[in-house]
Amino acid sequence: MAEAVPLFYGDRTEAENPSNFIKAFNRSMLFLNPLSTDAQKIKALANYLRMGSPAERWYEDLTTTQLASWDELTKAFNDRWPTTKSASQTSEEYQTELLSHKMLKEDVGVIRTVGQQKVWSHVRWADEAMELARLAKIKGGSTLIWQVKKQLPQAVRKLLDDEYMSWKTFTDDIKKLNMSKLKQECKEIEERKRREEERDQKLLQKVEVAKRATMADIMAQLQCLTIGQVAVPRTASRTSPSTTSPSSCNMQYTPPTEELKETVRKGLEQLPHQPDDEEGQRRYLSQLASWTMKHGETTRVTEHTPYPLKPGTAMICSGECFRCGTHGHGSRDCLTLEGDSSRLSCNETAWRALCNRALGPFNRSTAYSIRLVALDDQGNETGLL
């Protein structure tokens, strides 16, 4: 069946391509009458030009010479409607597109339909990557292979070689991946992920257990660690100080020894302050769980039992509040209440106070200022403390 050739206007609308029209007309003539003469083709062309259009007026103005042969007519046609050169991307642009050509983890082991043919998604990805490498003119070398390989799903990467010297070798290996091994690798990765999530959940549970210290123990520790203060026993009477019984914490401040300072410094090195990101939080939870398993839930914090520092809080020994780990106020003026998420655990409070007592605020000049955000009764931010 002959190809339907639409009427040609010649008014340069976006929907019309002159070069495609003349090609379609030639194909139609070859199908209808392969032995047609130039005169027959020239006469037939007039019937494919829209009535009253710029194309029809052009045809009517053709000279005798231009109507003498099909070659002369097509030359006149191309002069009137020259072929527009298609835009082309540079090698660098194709390389950028190649780097953004990612294989999703969810697509591994999935069948896609390409040209009425069912293929594995990683096979389709490899063909598309190879085409981009060809367009970028890097298919014969190893340019960008390691960067693209790094972005592949873990299950695919594990079944590939460490290095590749050409894109053809690289993409061919991807297309040849054994589906049984690939699916097994995906299954093992998911199983490892599940076990890690269970382990993290157990760590969180141990941390919660470690936080169940009584307020009486907290106050006793703080009284013993407060700088320059005399700890007053809880049973003391305000009206009868002479009847107050002595307490083991009721002593004047004494300067820390060099031995104490060195022990505290080593404790800070053992448990570095973690950054406030996903990896930092995971390491912090691991530190907490290790501390609880080693020392137990009710062990008192001393220079020999250094305690992990909460990510996102101020640097230790930087003039911070020992109760919330931020700057701008002291522990006595801290507005955080017991149970507040901004409040530090009793053990961390004790450790920060002990470090400050032993080493002083030596980090004050280098620490970033971290402030506590104050909220009103409706939970609206009212300012920094």
UniProtKB/TrEMBL annotation:
On whether Zinc is a keyword of this UniProt record, the answer is yes
User: Which stretches are tagged as biased composition: Low complexity?
Assistant: 236-248
Query: What one GO molecular function would you report for this record?
Result: zinc ion binding
- Please list where the region (Disordered) is annotated: 236-260
The highest taxon in the source lineage is Eukaryota
Q: Which UniProt keywords apply?
A: Coiled coil, Metal-binding, Zinc, Zinc-finger
Q: Which residues form a coiled coil?
A: 179-206
Ranges for domain CCHC-type: 321-334
The cross-references to InterPro entries, in alphabetical order and at most eight, read: Znf_CCHC
Q: What is this protein called?
A: CCHC-type domain-containing protein
* Originating species: Pisolithus tinctorius Marx 270
Highest classification ranks of the organism:
Eukaryota, Fungi, Dikarya, Basidiomycota, Agaricomycotina
